[in-house]
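Q: What would this complex look like in 3D?
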Amino acid sequence: MLSLALETRIGAVELDVTLDVADGACLALAGPSGAGKTSILRAVAGLLQPTRGRVTCSEQLWLDTAANVDLPPERRRCGYVFQDYALFGHLSAWRNVAYGLRHVPRRQRRAEAHALLARFGVEALADVRPATLSGGERQRVALARALAARPRALLLDEPLAALDARSAAAAASELAGVLRHVRVPALLVTHDFEEAALLGNEVAVLDGGRIVQRGSAAELAAAPASPFVADFTGAVVLRGTARRDAEGLTRVALEGGGEVVALSPAGGTVSVSIHPWEIALEPPDSPPSGSARNRIAVEVTSVTTLGNRVRVGLAAPQPLAAELTAASAARLGLAPGTRVIASWKAAATRVMPR
Amino acid sequence: MSGARGRGRGWFAALLAAALALALTFLTLPIAAVFVHSSPQDLLDSLGDASAREALRLSLVTTTIAIVVIVLVGTPAAYLLATRAFPGRALVVTLVELPLVLPPAVAGIGLLAALGPNGLLGGALDDAGIQLVLQTAGVVVALIFVAAPFYLRAAQAAFAAVDPRWSEASRTLGAGEARTFARIAAPAALPGLAAGLALAWGRALGEFGATLMFAGSFRGITQTAPLAIYADFATDFDGALALSAVLVAVSAALLLSTKLLARDALTRA
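A: Here is my prediction, written as structure tokens for the whole assembly.
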């Protein structure tokens, strides 16, 4: 368990954050640039001294400004994956990884480093310097290096930001796999909500140095605490398993039950995202009409007014959210407990491999 | 591309090329002249001359000692200046670089006033039994004084150019500050450090004014190669010229080998 409470000023931002992450869980800190996300990671790693704060990790006190405790980074040993990966340019890939292997006897370090690189599919690049590696390859070497040091917590700063769109998608599903097997608390920073939903068990939205809301990605999308969170979350994200049907459509069996239909081809474990404004609500007795292939009977759990629009939280095996005008919401008489049918087109359903 | 723009570029390129040609000619002509005047046989003959050999040996010994001291003290000092922010840092940087702009005569007088028999620390040095003035040790002190700023400046720039994330990554991977310096910062800055070393060594080999004033010009004790050239040129111009050629060759060889060694060390890692 990683627990932290921090207060400090970063430029114009007054950072004031309290959070904890369980062992094996990944909390995604999401927010716009300049919200103070990276500063939180740096304070956890011991690279930044906050004005006031307390950090503990698995019963070990790392920082307590009140008690004058401040462990240096080398004694906290966080696996830190920097945004630009910060691979040592004068060392080959395997020596980068071996640098974190000080607990391993010197003679075995090379073999151990090669094994770690192999785990990330880049063993062939062991003797290559970082300068000649692609973004995706650097990310893998950086992950291998961070895990080599047997970190007590894993910190990832925008792990996909330095990659182009195509390698980012592949790296994302790979990273999700890595995070599932890591037994220490992981804290991930991203400015992209879908990335946060994909990689984090939970998402905390940071704005102006404060956590404005924390919950599962679906909860955040369904019941945003503020217009800011509503805008930031954008899409509803559901998880499931995809298969191709006889019609050539992709059918995703959702975790917890239910099924959605999408056009884009996909298979295996996936994330499905739908923009709330693509989801239409109708009274429960209305007959199927129009071209929407996805129709689910749901119950309204929350109605949040955001200016001239309304975000409606919907109970389903995985929570959904719809966004409509205030006038439409009033006509449907929406209130918590109202039963409605949510429908959207297969074309509005995006599928991403996990 | 229109003809007008093409012509404009041609005109400017010609200007740049002419400026470089002029600079190159002016800067290499005296060096070339040294070698034109002394045949390889002259060089060998001049090395047969005991006083020239002695001056050359003294130059190599004193500059080597000076460079070792400069690197041992200057490297950590430059690392501190490059990586830590502290009040008065800009002032410290300026003070450390001040000897760069000091006229050699002022440097000599300053050293006498500070470390001479009647200088600020003269009494203390005397009590400790240390003699600098008119001694070989004095030559080393003068060399360190004039050459160290060259190394400090280059080393500071080299450390500042190392990505600070590398040091941070090293710390999170379990390495303390000393190990991070030895394994990450210093090797990454090595090309810059080597360039600074070559510059400082070159400056030390050519040192003349401060050495002459502080240590004097005694054959075998304080007469380094530049001082020997000065002492000889009125009476034995050809001999002085030959010694000059040897000094140029030694300086160039040092510069080249330092750079090659640094590049080798870097590609081996």
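A: To summarize the key features: The longest strand of chain A covers residues 294-306. Chain A is about 25% helix and 35% strand.
Q: Very helpful, thank you.
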